[in-house]
Amino acid sequence: MTDTLPREAEYVVVGGGTAGNVVAARLAEAGLDVLVLEAGPDFGAEGSEAWPADLIDATRLGRSHDWGYDSGSTYPWPVRFERARAIGGSSDFNGCTQTWGHRRDYDSWAERGLAGWSADELSPLFDEGTRRMRVRQYRPDELTPWQNAWYEAAPFVGIPQVPDLNNLDEAVGFAPEAVNIQDGVRVNSAFAYLDPARGLHNLTVVGDALVDRVMIDNGRATGVVVRHHGAVHTVYAHTVILAGGTYNSPTILLRSGIGPYSQLAPLDIDVVEHLPGVGENLHDQPFLLMSWEGSDEMTRAMAAARAAGWAPDEQAMGKAASSFEHEAFDLHFLPYSPTHRGDAKRWSIGTSALQPRSRGFVRVQSADPEAKPVIDHRFLSDSEGVDVAMLVEGAEILRELAASPALAPLVGPEIHPGPESFSREALVAHIYRHPDNYWHPVGTCAMGVASDRSAVVDARARVHGIEGLRVADCSIMPQIPRATTAMPAIVVGERVAGFLLEEAMSR
Questions:
Q1: How large is the angle between the packed helices 486-506 and 119-132, nearest 10 degrees?
Q2: Are residues 449 and 218 in contact, defined by beta-carbon separation less than 8 angstroms?
Q3: Which of 38, 76, 189, 367 could form a disulfide with 16 if both were Cys (CB 3.0 to 4.6 A apart)?
Q4: Average pLDDT, 10 consecutive residues per value, the chain (507 residues)
């Protein structure tokens, strides 16, 4: 950690988030000169007293140091899109659930002509990411009473209990989660990847360094323009790797003149490379949270679990298939029981449609790097209504579960969406009126072959038309995997780092 901004570096990694820290650490460990520029603070190594309590407390979601992004005026009320503006990025905020998805997710990328991204090629990287992130799996006897109730009842609706969630060939099942938690601490990617490399002389990490844009000279990235402590600086680089995430990487490209003419010209941003796909293809898995009144028995049991000292909000997960899915699964079930609300408890489980059809966009409103972008996921906008139909089927399965003999006495009456939405038509209307997200945005700098005019980067994460510029985060995913995207983001970092190291060794 330093407060001094170097004038140049061989590799500049823009964003010390989930994937960016993986890339930076891997390059530095190989002896390459690396500079990490993080827009938020760098709190130092694991154990530093500077770390905010909510960012390391694994029993709940992080909240501080948020970018403040939301849906703006696109819905009747704002839908928040929480992203951490701090070293560690969204690995500071998440619920620590680590899922991989299904083989078809990654094989479908490879079938698009994206060499190096098949499930078999990525599987060792999932294993390595799991090791580095200190992922462990809960045992069934560690589940809180609320989590265990849904896990035990799952077979009632034909969802088997399975050993874990991360067999890439597995379809439906309910299992205790695999989590990146150690001694109650959320193990973010800064702890797992950056900390072991912090002592290297060839790695520099600078916090509160907001990258405005990438400098392009004759079709090559030559460095970045950075705002640091109120001053504007230029940092030169041989290679720039954008790892700002699905919302920030495309906005940096747009401010750099890389994107569609139609967006850049009205903002007086000189177009360097016309790439229509920058900021497009935004998608996340739509989500529906359902809640029940609970029962005296469940209240007593959860109070005892809290008194015992460990009762996290998330611990188990189910995978199920809607009528639209014939290969694997396309629904998640996520029991959720906040334990820090005092008397205002909420007994909940959510369902998410993992393969959404709807697509939205991220766009800049000005060339000011502090100006919030327009983020419109266009949730539930697919013309055939498949996204809503998947959520409806998920809700119906959960209602069937809640009515089972084992669960009904524990969960009590449904209070959200509630009895007024018991008909399918009313439930459809409720979901359209209450769009929500699963916190897994992807796709705004999508990978694709050169002939695909919607693609932003190629299979090696190189920005089309610009030398020396990469993107390494979830924004390059052309289609979201059937997963929570924390571990897939780690794998993206590992994969892109591998490409960079191959090329460095061949120079």
A1: 110
A2: no
A3: 38
A4: 87 98 98 98 97 93 94 89 97 96 98 98 98 97 96 97 96 97 96 98 98 98 96 98 98 98 95 98 97 93 89 94 96 82 71 98 96 97 98 98 96 94 96 95 98 97 98 98 98 98 92
Containing structural domain, residue 316:
139-176+287-355+394-435
φ/ψ of 160, rounded to 5, equals -75, 150
Single-letter amino acid code for the residue at 393: E
Domain match, 218 and 349 both: no
CATH code for the domain in which residue 145 is found: 3.30.410.40
Q: How far apart are CA 348 and CA 32, in angstroms?
A: 48
Please compute, for residue 184, the number of CA atoms within 13 A of its CA located in the half-sphere on the CB side: 8
Same domain, 300 and 350: yes
Distance CA 353, CA 344 (A): 28
Same domain (yes/no): 266, 207: yes
> 97 has which bridge partners?
179
Residue 283 CA: distances (Å) to CA of 160, 362, 380: 30, 10, 10
Residue 22 near residue 493, CB atoms below 8 Å: yes
Q: HEC states along 128-177?
A: HHHHHCCCEECCHHHCCHHHHHHHHHHHHHCCCECCCCCCCCCCCEEEEC
Q: Give catalytic status of residue 440 as yes or no.
A: yes
Distance CA 74, CA 25 (A): 39
Instruction: Name the active-site residue from 102, 228, 440, 464.
Output: 440
How many helices (H) and strands (E) are present in the chain, helices listed first? 13, 21
Strand order in the sheet with 287-292: 173-176, 316-320, 331-336, 347-353, 287-292, 414-416
Q: Which residues are annotated as a binding site for FAD?
A: 211, 439-440
Question: Could you say which of 373, 403, 435 is where a domain stops?
Answer: 435
Regarding whether 420 and 307 lie in a shared domain, the answer is yes
How far apart CA 409 and CA 297 sit, in angstroms, is: 8
Residue list, annotated binding site? 211, 438-440
Please say whether the beta carbons of 205 and 39 come within 8 A.
Answer: no
Total-model pTM: 0.97
Residue 59: count of CB within 10 angstroms of its CB: 18
Tell me the C-alpha distance between 439 and 70, whole Å.
12
Please state the residue numbers annotated as binding site for substrate: 438
Report the DSSP pairing between strands 331-336 and 374-376.
Answer: unpaired
Could you say which DSSP state residue 202 is in?
Answer: T
131 in a domain, yes or no?
no
Q: Which of 404, 435, 466 finishes a domain?
A: 435
Neighbour tally for 374: CB within 10 Å: 17
- Two tokens, residue 63: 């909240």
The dihedral over CA atoms of 380, 381, 386, 388, expressed in degrees to the nearest 10, equals: 30
